[in-house]
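Listing 4. Sequential folding, example run.
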Amino acid sequence: MTAPKKLFVKTYGCQMNVYDSERMAEVLGEQGYQPTDTAEDADMILLNTCHIREKAAEKVYSELGRLKGLKAENPDLKIGVTGCVAQAEGEEIMRRQPAVDLVVGPQSYHRLPQMEARVREGGKALDTDFPEEDKFDTLKRRPKAARAPSAFLTVQEGCDKFCAFCVVPYTRGAETSRPVARILEEARDLVERGVREVTLLGQNVNAYHGLGADGREQSLAALIWALNDIDGLERIRFTTSHPNDMTDDLIEAHGACEKLMPYLHLPVQSGSDKILKRMNRSHTSESYLRVIERIRAARPDILMSGDFIVGFPEETEEDFQATLDLIEEVKYGYAYSFKYSTRPGTPAAERTQVDAAEADERLQRIQALITRQQQDIQKAMVGRSARVLVEKPGREAGQMVGKSEYLHAVHIENSDAAVGDIVPVRIIGAKRNSLAAIRQE
């Protein structure tokens, strides 16, 4: 018998790339590939790339240089680059690194079987189109293999906002939404495989406008209510959102839908209205705070998460202080902060840049504030009850690890819970990035 081919996928960046990597592995699984955890053991290697940060492409080329050595040892090894760097760089990747056999953008990976056949015959394969056919219509139903209790589910792709710092509209294309029926079908399949929680993904997920059974566009809130009716699906989350698309029905769902978890990632990027305008964010700090106010009125215990860019072109100390003031007012349970990095082809790349040392200093200050808020919120959890979705055994005997409603990592001591159980616990301790708990009956 012929030994199965082995596939190694290295994923960079966002949760959507994690989802895409899973789907690519499933597509190639139909061609006889089985996953492997080591590049050295693989017959095909895919780098599923992200282009959101500075030097993202150079990191990919550096990794390709390392993989070139593996191909020298095994000439039959095939190497592919997928994702947003593939979309942005295209055939330049093959020119700079001839060891690469295929390059495919994020909208075309459903064509991987044909591309794989081409490279197996000794050719090269390049596809960075935005094809007319919907890749999700082309992909087969997901195999029935057992899954972890939490899964990502892409419902929307692309973005029409054109923020001045962002490449997503150029690498992922315009906003598109999957039909409600297709999402419900995939969600039911996931539940049959052991999934109890789904996180709905989109570059701008709350702009979702997929077609419903009646042929009319449905909102994200309507989709959430439809998912709420699936037996066995116990938790729903979504990310990433834009403040301008937090509609009334979506805010209402946070207060009324029991399965929608009390956690919301809502990036603001800056607290300065001048910088927000230069970013083309189309909202103000005041309008953002009013959205937060309405969300908390609907769900008082909701935990907020956000994104911040410091050192954006022309940002002054006064602008930066406005960001710190906004953070102090909101009080985030989590937040992600980044120093601005230029993205070629975006409007902000051509503007006057902030001194690198000054931007570094601001990043340290904002991260110190965010860390303090996160730790204060975690300490406030001590003594409270929570419900934890158990995901895996812990490092200590009898310990199980999972996520609370608020997305806190929780270590349950001396627990007999099984993976996939949702168990009531009492929080007994707060560490830097996790909580300790004991099970309650």
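-- end of first protein; second protein begins --
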Amino acid sequence: MRYGAIDIGSNAVRLLIAEVNEEVYPVQFKKEAFIRVPLRLGDDSFIHQHISETKFENMLKTMHAFRNLMDVYRVTEYMACATSAMRDADNGKDIVKACRKFGIEIQIIDGAKEAQIIYNNNIQDTMDKSKVYLYIDVGGGSTEISLFSSAELIASKSFNLGTIRILDNQDSSETWDELKHWVREHTKGYKNIYGIGTGGNINKLSRIANEKLDKPMSYSKLKAIYTYLSSYSLKDRIHVLGLKQDRADVIIPAAEIFLTIMRVGHLKNIVAPRVGLVDGIIQTLIDNNLQNSK
């Protein structure tokens, strides 16, 4: 069977279609199709708290296309989650209502639910129970941080600090201070903390570092890449370095968030398993079905 996951983020909207194999345990899934559309809903939402008519229409066209693709792939179940941009927009519920006519039911989820879905990638199964991990997801509108010890969730927090907010000058010093205070308070007392980073930007930073999928990236390496990228103009990051237009700008503030958390929390390394909200949604659907079948 095939499941669908839709992530309506502040920078981009994504659809993942996965084939699920229930004949093995634990249940596994294989990615069959992945589509990413850079709608940038956050540009409207964070500045005006309202999604413009143009982006509203583009959102409807995207959801209509996603519905058609899921029908072609014979997707049996799906989940669509909207995050920070739709949370902040005063017409977010109007978009949800308008998308229903295409057969897409959207859930606008809060930061806590977003964090829960993100780390629902069976990440605990790969954790060394003798180690402490800080799971960091940086998006366009928010950053979710979760602390794990002995493969158990100790604390989790969502902050209204993301790449689009920073680019649009909608981040505040108070939010930065709140994030640093939370990290400092929850990491003190632990000697060695290992970072796990998710989101498109840390994935790209990891690729630029020429690191393998499961190889950690050191703080000094990430800082060097940040300095290197910052030395180029936005135009040159696109035309000389070959970054996509909607990645070339957000990658700088994303690196700043990761570096800040690593510095304050004394993380020496961070690994990017290259999973995100859509992967967590697929796993959530799998878990729900397993529970319902019992």
